[in-house]
Amino acid sequence: ADGTELVIYNPVTKSSHSFMDVVDYTLAKDGETIGFVQSTTDSTKVKHFTASLFSVSDESVKEIFKGDGDLKSLTMNDDGTKQAFMYTTDTSDVKVYSLYLNIGSSAAKVVDCDTPGMPEEWSVSENGSLEFSESGGRLFFGTAEKPVEEPEDELLPEEKYKLDIWSWHDDLLQPQQKVNLNREKRATFLAVYFIDDNKMVQLADKDLPSVNVLMKRDGDLAVGTSNLKYRKLTSWESNRYTDYYLVDVKTGKRTLVLETAPGSVAFSPSGEQVVFWCIDSRSWKAKPARGGDIVDLTSKLGVAFHNELHDSPSEPSPYSRPDWIEGEKYVLINDRFDIWKIDISGREAAVNLTNGFGRKNNIRLNYTTIEAGSGGRFGMGSDDKLYIGPKEEIYLSSFNYYTKDAGLYTVKVNKPANPVKLIEGPYSYGGFTKAKEADRTIFTKGDFVNFPELHISNTKFTEAVKISDTNPQQKDFNWGTSELVEWRSFDGQMLQGILYKPENFDPTRKYPMIAYFYERSSDGVYRYTAPAPSASTINRTYAVSNGYLIFVPDIPYIEGYPGQSAYNAIVSGTYAMLEQFDFIDPDRLGLDGQSWGGYQIAYLITQTDLFACAFSGAPVSNMTSAYGGIRWGSGMSRMFQYEKTQSRIGGTLWEKPIHYIENSPIFFVPKINTPVLIMHNDEDGAVPWYQGIEFFVALRRLEKPAWLLSYNDEDHNLTKRPNRKDLSVRKMQFFDHYLKGAPAPYWMEKGISQMEKGKIDGYELMKN
Questions:
Q1: Prediction pTM value
Q2: 20, 3 in Cβ contact below 8 A?
Q3: What is the Cα–Cα distance from 678 to 680, expressed in whole angstroms?
Q4: What Rg, from alpha-carbon coordinates, does the chain have?
Q5: How do the residues of the chain divide into helix, strand and coil, expressed in percent and rounded to 5?
């Protein structure tokens, strides 16, 4: 706010320093210097700012700037020898900032509106961030058009018209423009100040809005990207096309490298080479970034490098981005199972670095860094590592597609071989991080029963010890277990799923079972789930603790037939569970799902009476009316979703009208005999609220047992805890009534009228 007390305390010497009215502070990366800003306001409401430095070594304080106006974004280089901030003497609401730098005893202005290199009528933007390069020789900041005061509005509110004009020329629809409006107003464009040369260079602008400087911001090249001319396509295309440029950091000159690239582009750390994914050939390709021949890296290797389980009409993505080996001659690239070492020039034959071990054993192997501060995909910290060493022993995370076991392996970059296993098992692992200066590693390990606790070990993982006990109270509750199950779908595919049981499971009893699903979920069999009020879907631990079985089947899809695909997997899986396990009661089966799961449930109950009841959260009930709607959360058209992605129809409404109708539950509501509880909230930004309303009013007209929970001012999933608690109560009362024979609550028997709203909750059970 206006400032508070900052205390700097030395826990070794127990010395303490206190500074009042502090509004900002920052620490140098090496920990030797602390910078802080103090602000006071006088009787005339003028703010006085002071920027100071605290030296950790001698615990001294040095003032580097004092002024009236506004000061923000105090920043230091890694060793704390240079400080920068934005400052203005303007006291009006519209402020024009300048950039200040301290490299000695006091800060001075280095960039303002008149600095050579600053675009005309632009200035340093208060919305930009300040960052030094790793060497400290460059200072990066944001610029934008100079803010100006808007003319005074003399019209009364009732004299103004309010209008949105939708034009077919617009690159973004009006709702999407509204969603992005604040971000657009605060947009900044990267510029750099060369400290030794006292020179500013503008790197980004409105034509090239995003620029990323390479080599920890010390490189002579940067990568610029622009998707401006493809924004209109986002309404119906799933590919997010982008143009890529090389930008000379010293001059700002830019050169086009890739045009209409669909994503998955990896420049080398220096920027001299680029590897990119080609959707036409479904292969990785490489070229010198400054110009040269394109080399196909993977199309002739005999294995697929795209997602082989991809089952939507969009183009499949590759498994991961390439990782660069020092020298920029080789990259590491994943197929589904293994890692390949590939010469980007194409002169040397590609080598399967993991020797086919992953494919032979149905294990996915991914390169990961676990060094402290490396920022690897598994590890924690900032991304300090530019390259993999040419002779380095690297770590590989592992995941068995069949058993779902996970772990960690090693292999040497210069020697193709079977990876060496360090740790593996039926658990979820995470956060592997090695100590910088010791043979110690910390990581988490857990499963559905055990919270992912912290463990420490040596780097060979031969002496792992658990060091945390997060939920000792869990022993006092009836928890649950999880296990993988398998079956053949109606079309002959071998599918997997998860079956959850109560901890006190008795195989001689008959249990009610609720099927929950989305798409493919079996990989999460060892994921821990803490009991909590529900944002939408059923809490699995809470359900099994209260005597339910939960079945979570995987669902593969066929283009054009999402509803039928769901039926093929879910209903076949439910029948298979009934055949395999006598403890499942065939008369007490329920359904639960949200969003895409809610749609599939709405479709399923038009096709089968197998289930005694169903919860359908935020369902699309009518694809023909939803197709042309807006995803209000993003402001985007919904067309792309039906044509290319999750809804999987594979064409426009006018190209495939029958597919849209056949997959829309609304057209088959008369066939529904399953009581259904719908949740659809009036501020849903993903699935239009009217979809739930269409479904409910059709069920109501046909006298089908149905309820619609519409939480006021709530989004797609509930965010407010009281609402989550309420949903959890009502959902379990609904399931308890239909699957356990419990009396129906008042709200199910009588509803809650607007006169009763807020006065009663209707939880009380009615007499049978």
A1: 0.90
A2: yes
A3: 6
A4: 30
A5: 15, 35, 50
